[in-house]
């Protein structure tokens, strides 16, 4: 079987080596398309492959049409909003993700960004500490749980809300479970977003929601840019000079946000999962899932069931 690694944002070299070892060790062939810049390169590379490993790369109906032999696509990571699931199902292609494999990397970046924010982006002026601050985690999945673990090390008071995770599971992790998203914003100094981009969550972080943060509140987004109503957040930040917004997913309205000097920061590229460890964990997990699919028909991590 021919397996393609198609990554516009490439894995660390050690991860590619590990993927190669797994794929070739199972008697399959590995081909690489890294740092591609044009869609045509992807459309050409998928023509004769049986499987694909991707990151945030877009697997659209057009890509699936071009990939005549494709049987499985594995998103090495958590969020699979970049795969057209309906089209994958229509093309009889199994779509999978690798949940949990890169979540520590994203969670650590949350704190890298947070310390930077509360120390005024290292501008030399006196900042504040995270200890004793109230942190709200929106969605208690793999990333949210790692954020909670690290926050406790900082001595923060941690609350969480997850529409799909029972309160007793959150409480069992030593985290205060609040009853609603609104309560999280009303009671926390900092809210960290870990929700996926779905029809229900897209643009859900809007003016009304964020305006509930107390004075000096910080919104941090390492999830998906689509969950933020950017137009409304720009309006709110213009009205409330106490609010900060930090993110590792550059918003479409980056230029508008950039006007809020000292209150806004975005990494130039999505950086959350950009560590050797995360690449190795997620990349090798993806390779193993593909091998298991071809060997035993295993579809444990299928997301288009
Ligand atoms: C994920 O969904 O796993 C993270 O957002 C990481 O995405 P990336 O592989 O594109 O960095």
UniProtKB/TrEMBL annotation:
Residues 29-304 form the D-isomer specific 2-hydroxyacid dehydrogenase catalytic domain. The keyword Oxidoreductase applies. Residues 123-249 form the D-isomer specific 2-hydroxyacid dehydrogenase NAD-binding domain. PROSITE patterns: D_2_HYDROXYACID_DH_1. It comes from the Bacteria. Keywords: NAD, Oxidoreductase. GO terms for molecular function: NAD binding; oxidoreductase activity, acting on the CH-OH group of donors, NAD or NADP as acceptor. Belongs to the D-isomer specific 2-hydroxyacid dehydrogenase family. This is 3-phosphoglycerate dehydrogenase.
